[in-house]
Amino acid sequence: MNTNDPNEFTNQNADPNTVNTAQKAEPAALYCSHCGRQISPDSIFCNYCATPVAAAKVDQQPYGAPANPQSNFGAYAHDQSNTMGSSFTAQGAMNDPYQYHPNAPYNNQAGNTGFGGYQFSAYNAFAMDPRYKQFQVSNLQPGQREIVRCTQVSKSYGSSNALNPLNLVIGNGRVIGLLGPNGSGKTTLIKLMCGLLTPTTGTITINSTPIGAATKAMVSYLPDRTYIPDWMKIRNILDYFCDFYADFRRPLAETMLGNLHIDPNAVMKTLSKGTQEKVQLVLVMSRNASLYLLDEPIAGVDPVARDYILDTIIRAHNPDSSVVISTHLITDIEPALNEVIMIKYGSLALQGDADQLRRTFGKSLNDIFKEVFAGC
């Protein structure tokens, strides 16, 4: 036996089928848990996304998980207590909800690909909960009358899908939170219901009437930006709304302006951004409409005025109508909500009664939101 040959067994009596521990195994491939690209074993940060390698690197194990299933890093097996971690699994570590796909389009062309080239999947701890499925289909609550129906509605801008084919129904008598991360399609959906955009596919009806001139009288819309000319006085704006909308209730508008200590003789450009938003909200809620669509109504309003504004939204709208509020301030607005609609990458993720959701999952709407959109 050649004792200088490192490939020879060091123990002559050893089982030849036993792996030679003297042989040095090749290092396993390492992948970044955030972007899924292969990284060098001696790297401190991923060369592509700058994720710290100490947190990112794992051995390549297709469809299996590394040894430590309780790790807080997404490279490891799913842990029920670690919803966020499971959303950033390294490529090959397990069935990854956001694996990197080099050939995936940057925009949501296929209808199942999130922005940035990450494949969207419903997989997370919340989506795997069997109780979740009852809230994945849009339905009217008991005793409701239908106000809005969207049938296979989608909206594309070139090769980018802002809204995937969506089936949605909204009933009367509700204050509804339209929730989702940036880029989910909330504003697009609101503008489609207003008739400001035309769907690429599908149909929308308001009170069983297709979107058109007739439905504009049924919808009161608050955009996410100031639209009133800054040279106008508030009392002139009230005159304008009285002339333009047959359902405008001027006494109610004047009462709300007084409660907010806003002078009707003030010129819009002399008011702060938050006060301008209050004026616009008063104008919108003073109409007697079937559907109120509010896009970020309290984003620029001071916390002191938020409670009054939310109370105004609840009290001012017609009891037979519904209010849809798009917002990120879920904690602030949660007490006012009867129902929530959550949209994820242009698709319906969840719709349900607010109290039923809290009872079913034992969590606040804000915590449910975090579960649904973990990793987005």
What's the story with the biggest beta sheet?
Answer: 6 strands, mixed
Low confidence ranges: 8-12, 55-123
- Please tally the β strands and state the result: 13
If you compute it from the alpha carbons, what radius of gyration comes out, rounded to the nearest whole angstrom?
A: 28 Å
CATH architecture of the largest domain: 3-Layer(aba) Sandwich
As for the number of domains, it is: 2
Strand order of the largest sheet: 9-10-11-6-12-13
Query: What would you call the structural class?
Result: alpha/beta
Helix amount, in percent?
Answer: 10-25%
So what's the CATH class of the largest domain? Alpha Beta
Written description of the protein model:
This protein is an alpha/beta fold and 376 residues long. The chain is built from 10 helices and 13 strands. It has a 6-stranded mixed beta sheet, with helices on both faces. Strands 5-4-7-8 form a 4-stranded antiparallel beta sheet, with helices on one face. The longest helix is centred in the C-terminal third of the chain and has 14 residues, at 303-316. The termini are far apart.
Secondary-structure blueprint:
Blueprint: E1 30-31, E2 38-39, H1 53-56, E3 58-59, E4 146-157, E5 160-171, E6 175-179, H2 186-194, E7 201-206, E8 209-210, H3 213-216, E9 219-222, H4 234-244, H5 250-259, H6 273-285, E10 291-295, H7 303-316, E11 322-326, H8 330-333, E12 339-344, E13 347-353, H9 354-361, H10 365-372
Helix pairs in contact: 6-7
